[in-house]
Q: What sequence folds into this?
């Protein structure tokens, strides 16, 4: 293994425990949890659970009122997309000012595919909750050979909290960063 390989692998391992990008500050939802967004989600996914849609039913339920589908956690904290310049950003819907994985692109691991997402729910978001999220790299695999090419699985842990700092849930999101097979 060369010094460059050693430096590359140290940088890769060094991602673990650090923010996935930006300033490391929490992402704060642009809007509080609200009924119109819940309704759009429920109809789009054909999830007509009455605790999401029926105030009387929800009031009499264990939740005591309307709640958001728990896997909407990610949706609440997504920033509005910036479409201007999206082609120049390779399709990214937002400006990326601090990309801690840019060194992977430089080393030829220029392609990304999402592989899975897992949620752990502590409690359902309630109407009016203002949700924040923080995201840190949780793990990086050894180099793997896949049908898409050789690469690394990167997993980050996103923690969602309400306006009081109460944890609502966690999401583990995993991607494969790889060198395309035909490159």
A:
């Amino acid at each position: 293994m060369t010094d460059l390989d050693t430096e590359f692998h140290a940088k890769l391992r060094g991602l673990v425990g650090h923010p996935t990008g930006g300033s490391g500050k929490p992402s704060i939802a642009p809007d509080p949890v609200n009924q119109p967004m819940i309704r759009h989600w429920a109809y789009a996914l054909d999830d007509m659970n009455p605790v999401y849609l029926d105030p009387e039913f929800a009031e009499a339920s264990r939740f005591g009122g309307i709640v958001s589908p728990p896997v909407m956690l990610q949706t609440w904290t997504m920033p509005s997309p910036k479409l201007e310049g999206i082609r120049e950003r390779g399709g990214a819907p937002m400006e990326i000012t601090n990309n801690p994985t840019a060194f992977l692109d430089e080393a030829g691991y220029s392609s990304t595919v999402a592989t899975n997402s897992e949620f752990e729910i502590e409690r359902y978001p309630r109407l009016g909750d203002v949700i924040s999220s923080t995201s840190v790299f949780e793990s990086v695999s050894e180099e793997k050979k896949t049908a898409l090419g050789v690469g690394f699985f990167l997993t980050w842990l996103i923690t969602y909290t309400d306006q009081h700092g109460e944890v609502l849930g966690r999401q583990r999101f995993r991607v494969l960063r790889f060198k395309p097979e035909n490159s």
About this structure: The longest helix spans residues 3-13. The beta strands are 27-28, 111-121, 132-140, 144-145, 150-161, 167-178.
